[in-house]
Amino acid sequence: MDKQKIEIGIIGGRFDKVSTVLEEFEPGDKKFIHSYEKIGVKPRTVQTVKDAEIRVKVPARLHPTVLDMNCFNLNRPGGGGIGISIGVYFHAGVKAIKEPEIRTRGERSLIVKHFAHIFKELLGYEGGFEIELQDHGRRHVGLGSSIGTMCSVCIGMNEVLGRPFTGWELRRIMGYHSCEESPMTEGCLLPAFETGIGAMVGINGGWVVASDDLVMVHRVDLPDTKVIVFIPEVKSLEDEFQGRETSAESEVELLLRRARSLDGMQAGAKAQIVLFDMIPAMVRGDLKKMGDALFDISYLGSKRAECEQHGAYGTPIYSFINAFRGMGVEIAGMSSVGPTIFALTRKQEVYDRVLAYLDSLNISKTRIIETEVDNMGGTVTENGVERSFINDNWLKG
Known about the structure:
Helices cover 35% and strands 25% of the residues. By secondary structure, it is α+β, with helices and mostly antiparallel strands.
């Protein structure tokens, strides 16, 4: 199979002009499976293999901002950021088998197979897996379909193999092996950029602030918090919906060029807002002040670049965010590179106003998701009993 490469010139600071290369690979390619030393995890082995199938449920994530995109690249996850766990789910069924095969059903089979190979290689596991994965079906719009897939499958394999890794270690395994399906060659994957946010909220739930090197700084529950997720129709989606390309190349160009350049100038301001405004508001449980801080960040650095890519210097995105805030929504923003926009509120009358506003614009209900913040995180079901995935050493970094 002839594999291709995408070479992207990086422009961060004024004099920072180098290149990064996205190279296609097939699931299980050992060149794209990193050592324990590389990912910063102590070696583990399989002590117990369970016979039962494990069912896993993992919430999707909203990713309101990265703190500094100059801090990550391929094979170097990080950059910090903010994450929110919401009640939109991935479901995986994982079973260990004696045969050294990887059998997959459902969605995202290439990602599933690659992570099964990663577990076999890292743990020296000679058996195989039967894995079924169902994602939430909303891909490349900012709802973390790829990292949610990785998270649910990794939790499931970790369970059937006797839980050799902690939640913190799973986060690092996912961070260093993040990947997506290639838009160029069928059956191939491409390395992806990863902050660790998806794994943090997928495992832990709630609202999370992270720093560089996949370190979780603080996490809080957001009880009784309703969520409206809205996927607007913007020009940036047209090519993808028509099947001409996925978001891979255009997103990489955005992340490695304008977004980095703006973060080079404004990442310090973003970090100060998080440290001095957002985290104190999290400690107090003040949803409104958390939203005020996020609103300020929405106009700074890489977040500004992400909003602007959807046309008219971000007007299609910012018009909705400002409208939601004007209605009394405590927290509003755009997730990841978008165009997904979200509104979080604890007030029923505000929630109703947002829905009425979207209805007045004749927005299709298929583009709106009504849910709530998930404060539990990933769960595992074994022999009919569901329990949360206990994540020890959550702050370790």
